[in-house]
Design brief:
The protein is an alpha/beta fold. It is built from five helices and eight strands; from the N terminus they run H-E-E-E-H-E-H-E-H-E-H-E-E. The chain has one domain: Rossmann fold (3-Layer(aba) Sandwich), CATH 3.40.50.1240. Helix 2 crosses helix 3.
Protein backbone atom coordinates (compact mmCIF):
# COMPACT_ATOMS: atom_id res chain seq x y z
CA UNK A 1 0.00 0.00 0.00
CA UNK A 2 2.88 2.39 0.74
CA UNK A 3 4.24 2.05 -2.80
CA UNK A 4 0.85 2.83 -4.30
CA UNK A 5 0.49 6.00 -2.20
CA UNK A 6 4.02 7.04 -3.09
CA UNK A 7 3.35 6.45 -6.81
CA UNK A 8 0.08 8.41 -6.59
CA UNK A 9 1.83 11.29 -4.80
CA UNK A 10 4.57 11.32 -7.44
CA UNK A 11 2.00 11.31 -10.23
CA UNK A 12 0.08 14.17 -8.59
CA UNK A 13 3.29 16.20 -8.22
CA UNK A 14 4.16 15.58 -11.88
CA UNK A 15 0.70 16.76 -12.94
CA UNK A 16 1.05 19.89 -10.79
CA UNK A 17 4.42 20.72 -12.38
CA UNK A 18 2.96 20.15 -15.85
CA UNK A 19 0.02 22.44 -14.97
CA UNK A 20 2.37 25.20 -13.84
CA UNK A 21 4.44 24.82 -17.03
CA UNK A 22 1.29 25.13 -19.18
CA UNK A 23 0.19 28.22 -17.21
CA UNK A 24 3.65 29.76 -17.70
CA UNK A 25 3.54 28.96 -21.42
CA UNK A 26 0.13 30.61 -21.70
CA UNK A 27 1.39 33.76 -19.95
CA UNK A 28 4.46 33.96 -22.19
CA UNK A 29 2.27 33.54 -25.30
CA UNK A 30 0.29 36.56 -24.11
CA UNK A 31 3.49 38.54 -23.54
CA UNK A 32 4.62 37.72 -27.07
CA UNK A 33 1.33 38.39 -28.83
CA UNK A 34 -0.91 40.88 -27.02
CA UNK A 35 -0.74 44.66 -26.97
CA UNK A 36 -0.50 46.60 -23.73
CA UNK A 37 1.45 43.95 -21.79
CA UNK A 38 3.64 45.09 -18.92
CA UNK A 39 6.02 42.76 -17.09
CA UNK A 40 6.90 43.90 -13.58
CA UNK A 41 10.03 42.62 -11.92
CA UNK A 42 12.05 43.64 -8.91
CA UNK A 43 15.76 44.26 -9.18
CA UNK A 44 17.67 41.03 -8.73
CA UNK A 45 19.58 39.94 -5.63
CA UNK A 46 21.51 42.85 -4.15
CA UNK A 47 23.49 43.76 -1.08
CA UNK A 48 24.70 46.90 0.64
CA UNK A 49 24.24 48.92 3.78
CA UNK A 50 21.29 51.20 3.04
CA UNK A 51 18.60 50.05 0.59
CA UNK A 52 17.14 53.56 0.38
CA UNK A 53 20.42 55.29 -0.50
CA UNK A 54 20.41 56.85 -3.96
CA UNK A 55 23.45 58.50 -5.52
CA UNK A 56 21.97 61.02 -7.94
CA UNK A 57 25.34 61.32 -9.70
CA UNK A 58 24.98 57.77 -11.06
CA UNK A 59 28.22 56.66 -9.38
CA UNK A 60 26.23 54.30 -7.07
CA UNK A 61 28.08 55.45 -3.93
CA UNK A 62 26.34 54.00 -0.88
CA UNK A 63 23.72 52.18 -2.97
CA UNK A 64 22.91 48.50 -2.96
CA UNK A 65 24.58 46.68 -5.84
CA UNK A 66 23.80 43.37 -7.47
CA UNK A 67 25.55 40.35 -6.07
CA UNK A 68 27.01 37.68 -8.37
CA UNK A 69 23.72 35.80 -7.85
CA UNK A 70 21.82 38.95 -8.85
CA UNK A 71 23.86 39.37 -12.02
CA UNK A 72 23.16 35.73 -12.94
CA UNK A 73 19.45 36.30 -12.27
CA UNK A 74 19.47 39.40 -14.49
CA UNK A 75 21.10 37.40 -17.29
CA UNK A 76 18.43 34.70 -16.86
CA UNK A 77 15.71 37.36 -17.10
CA UNK A 78 17.08 38.57 -20.41
CA UNK A 79 17.40 35.00 -21.66
CA UNK A 80 13.70 34.35 -20.89
CA UNK A 81 12.83 37.07 -23.40
CA UNK A 82 15.53 36.26 -25.97
CA UNK A 83 14.62 32.55 -26.00
CA UNK A 84 11.09 33.57 -26.98
CA UNK A 85 12.32 36.26 -29.41
CA UNK A 86 10.48 38.93 -27.41
CA UNK A 87 12.04 42.41 -27.64
CA UNK A 88 10.57 44.57 -24.88
CA UNK A 89 10.72 48.26 -24.13
CA UNK A 90 12.36 48.60 -20.69
CA UNK A 91 11.69 51.21 -18.00
CA UNK A 92 13.75 51.24 -14.80
CA UNK A 93 14.16 52.92 -11.47
CA UNK A 94 17.30 55.10 -11.46
CA UNK A 95 18.71 53.22 -8.46
CA UNK A 96 21.79 51.23 -9.37
CA UNK A 97 20.48 47.75 -8.53
CA UNK A 98 17.54 48.28 -10.92
CA UNK A 99 19.67 49.86 -13.63
CA UNK A 100 22.18 47.02 -13.46
CA UNK A 101 19.37 44.45 -13.63
CA UNK A 102 17.86 46.16 -16.68
CA UNK A 103 21.20 46.67 -18.45
CA UNK A 104 22.39 43.09 -17.97
CA UNK A 105 19.04 41.69 -19.09
CA UNK A 106 18.15 44.05 -21.93
CA UNK A 107 20.54 46.97 -22.47
CA UNK A 108 19.90 50.61 -21.60
CA UNK A 109 16.40 51.32 -20.23
CA UNK A 110 14.20 54.41 -20.09
CA UNK A 111 14.87 55.96 -16.65
CA UNK A 112 13.03 58.57 -14.60
CA UNK A 113 14.30 59.86 -11.21
CA UNK A 114 10.74 59.72 -9.83
CA UNK A 115 10.81 55.92 -10.15
CA UNK A 116 13.27 55.43 -7.27
CA UNK A 117 12.18 53.39 -4.26
CA UNK A 118 9.22 54.82 -2.35
CA UNK A 119 9.49 52.79 0.88
CA UNK A 120 10.44 55.79 2.99
CA UNK A 121 8.46 58.31 0.99
CA UNK A 122 5.65 60.44 2.32
CA UNK A 123 2.32 60.81 0.51
CA UNK A 124 3.69 63.45 -1.88
CA UNK A 125 6.67 61.24 -2.82
CA UNK A 126 4.37 58.24 -3.34
CA UNK A 127 2.10 60.32 -5.54
CA UNK A 128 5.09 61.61 -7.56
CA UNK A 129 6.12 57.99 -8.21
CA UNK A 130 2.62 56.89 -9.18
CA UNK A 131 2.11 59.79 -11.60
CA UNK A 132 5.51 59.24 -13.27
CA UNK A 133 5.08 55.46 -13.45
CA UNK A 134 1.57 55.70 -14.90
CA UNK A 135 2.71 58.28 -17.45
CA UNK A 136 5.56 56.00 -18.58
CA UNK A 137 3.36 52.89 -18.66
CA UNK A 138 0.82 54.65 -20.87
CA UNK A 139 3.45 56.29 -23.09
CA UNK A 140 5.30 53.02 -23.75
CA UNK A 141 2.38 50.61 -23.93
CA UNK A 142 1.89 49.14 -27.33
CA UNK A 143 2.71 46.16 -29.49
CA UNK A 144 6.03 45.44 -27.78
CA UNK A 145 5.72 44.40 -24.13
CA UNK A 146 7.01 46.79 -21.51
CA UNK A 147 9.34 45.53 -18.77
CA UNK A 148 9.20 47.66 -15.61
CA UNK A 149 12.27 47.04 -13.38
CA UNK A 150 11.55 48.44 -9.95
CA UNK A 151 11.31 47.81 -6.21
CA UNK A 152 8.88 45.74 -4.19
CA UNK A 153 7.03 48.67 -2.55
CA UNK A 154 6.73 50.47 -5.90
CA UNK A 155 5.31 47.43 -7.69
CA UNK A 156 2.94 46.84 -4.76
CA UNK A 157 1.75 50.45 -4.99
CA UNK A 158 0.93 50.08 -8.70
CA UNK A 159 -0.47 46.54 -8.76
CA UNK A 160 -1.51 45.71 -5.18
CA UNK A 161 0.67 42.59 -5.56
CA UNK A 162 3.75 41.71 -3.52
CA UNK A 163 6.41 39.95 -5.51
CA UNK A 164 9.49 38.21 -4.27
CA UNK A 165 12.98 38.30 -5.69
CA UNK A 166 13.01 36.30 -8.93
CA UNK A 167 9.27 36.61 -9.52
CA UNK A 168 7.79 38.19 -12.61
CA UNK A 169 4.33 39.75 -12.59
CA UNK A 170 2.58 39.91 -15.96
CA UNK A 171 -0.21 42.43 -16.48
CA UNK A 172 -2.03 44.51 -19.07
CA UNK A 173 -2.15 48.27 -18.91
CA UNK A 174 -4.92 50.19 -20.66
CA UNK A 175 -4.79 53.64 -22.25
CA UNK A 176 -5.72 55.29 -18.93
CA UNK A 177 -2.97 53.48 -17.00
CA UNK A 178 -5.22 50.96 -15.25
CA UNK A 179 -3.32 47.74 -14.56
CA UNK A 180 -4.94 44.29 -14.73
CA UNK A 181 -2.71 41.50 -13.39
CA UNK A 182 -2.78 38.38 -15.58
CA UNK A 183 -0.47 36.12 -13.59
CA UNK A 184 3.00 35.53 -12.28
CA UNK A 185 5.93 33.29 -12.96
CA UNK A 186 9.47 32.84 -11.67
CA UNK A 187 12.95 32.97 -13.08
CA UNK A 188 14.42 29.53 -13.59
CA UNK A 189 16.60 28.41 -10.69
CA UNK A 190 20.31 28.84 -11.29
Amino acid sequence: MGRIRWALALAAASLAVAGVARADDALWRRVASEEGIVVFTRHMNSAGTNPLAWDETGQCRGEHALTPKGRAQAAALGELFRSRTIRPVVVSSPMCRCLETARIAFGDPVVDPALRETASGDAARSREFEVAATRLLVRHRGRAPLVFVSHRPNIDQLTMELIEEGEILIAKVDESGRIDVLGRTRLPDR
